[in-house]
Amino acid sequence: AVVSTQSTGGTGIVTRRPLIMQINQDHDAIEPWGSFLHNPDKKYNDFDQICEEIIRDTDRVCGNDKNINCEPITLKIHSADLPTLTLVDLPGITKNPVGDQPRDIEQQTTALVRKYIENPNCIILAVSPGNIDIANSESIKLAKEVDPQGDRTLAVITKIDLMEKSAENSRVLEGKVIPIKLGIVGVINRTQAQMDANISIEECLQREAEFFKNHFNYMSNEMGTPYLTQRLCSVLMQHVKQCLPELIIRITEQKVIQQSILDSLGPRIEDESGALADLVMKFCREFQNNMNGRRSVQFAASERALSGGRHLFEVFDSAVCQELDKIALPADIEADIEHEIISAGGSKPALFTPNIVFDNLASRQLEHFTFPIKKSIKKCSETITEIISILSKKTFERFPILKRETHQISLTLLLAKTQVVEKFIDSYIQCELCYINTNHRLFTKNRPQLEKTFAEQTEGKDGKESLNGEQLSTKKIKALLDLYIHIIRNQLMDVVPKTVVCYMVLQFCDDLHKDLMKTLFSSDRVDDLMKEDMLVEERREKALRMLDALERADAITSLLE
């Protein structure tokens, strides 16, 4: 990374955004050329156009005044003559704001520079102009703060031709004034006047070499832009070797990560029909395994992952059993019983309580089961719907159209099975209402004990009944109603889960694959169904490029070992 104060190499506010120059040694490149990350399809062979594009994109982001921005410009340069290297040209540290720059411009530029040079893998090029005292160099001061040992700092002195000719300045270049472990290299940059006069880079380099031979002959071999390039490559190579063990570990870790991403995204589809059939089979198998307890899913409202069958069991326990348990005889049931006894007598009082009294009362109580049962069936349907949504998202994540179609077909089939369950339970309750079975085995078995217990509770202290005949009948009917309702409640607690599992799970599983294959393959839409999400393709391409770069980096590190 190139660190300097403003105007170290030019005049005015020169660099206002980080410029990342990725130099690639390309032996196939007949002439040097470049491209920008923000416009990768355009190839630049004229480096004046590259400069214009840098200025244009800088103005686009930063405005036309002097403001800076941390968003980098990435420039890739391909050349057969240049070494593979990445340079980051950073905005110079600005002391006083100009133009529309904020008042804290110094803090902003310093923070921006630190962001790059604090990276322990970054080689710091601390640039200082030759016409100021190196003891006041902000770039060297900042480099020493982040690299106190000087293991990755190389100092560069520009504008050597403007330095006073003195022994003190020679000592500066020799590193005797401020020691720099990696050395100090003096250069003479191409000036704006030379650019305006169309003096070529080659001629400027020749003038630079002649200057050092004439003025610093004893160290001219270690001065100038060509030597800086050579020295920088040497320092970089040495630094890479020092970081090699850690670098190999990071490359290996990243290769595993990128390969994992590719595996999760899956390969490109070649046989679309075959892939569609495989995905449908996988989806159906996943659903079946979830219901059988072999797989687990994480509900949004659940703290832990459970199998789909277990989720359904919890619905049976909470929505079916607990809701039905809440249904009890109303507090005013005795008044209802008395009213029913009176009504059943017709035009004259009844000598005995007729069976119709019990039948009517029992039927009315059984009707109270209808609402909670339908509510529990709906809850079961919602649970299975959530399982379908989770599994379809997981199985068809790459194919949004297929995911939507599969989800819709599955829900349509589930709705049909739910309606079958509701119709069956309606018929079952209707059967219970039509025939009050007082000869039920459990009812006849428990009735004698119930009547005996009831008689003991209603017998007075003198051994006589403490209740009159009508009151006694009311109490007995209430007790028998409670027994009968308890029996039917237990039957429903058994019948409802069995019916749900039979139709909404087992038959649903049996018909799901058939319905999906029939509907998805019935129209000529396989191409549309197997279209991947654009983000998936982008992620795959990015992972492939990253993996390719890591493979090349791995090959390079193996040569360095």
Could you walk me through the main structural features you see in this protein, from its secondary elements to its overall organization?
By secondary structure, the chain is of the alpha/beta class. 59% of the residues lie in helices and 8% in strands. It is built from 17 helices and nine strands. The strands form two sheets. The protein has a five-stranded mixed β-sheet, covered by helices on one side. The chain is elongated and about 140 Å long. About 1% of the residues have low confidence.
Short descriptors:
alpha/beta, 4-stranded parallel β-sheet, 9 strands, elongated, 561 residues
Entry summary:
With 561 residues, the protein is of the alpha/beta class. The protein contains 17 helices and 9 strands. Helix 8 crosses helix 9 (308-325), helix 10 crosses helix 11 (355-366) and helix 12 packs antiparallel against helix 13.
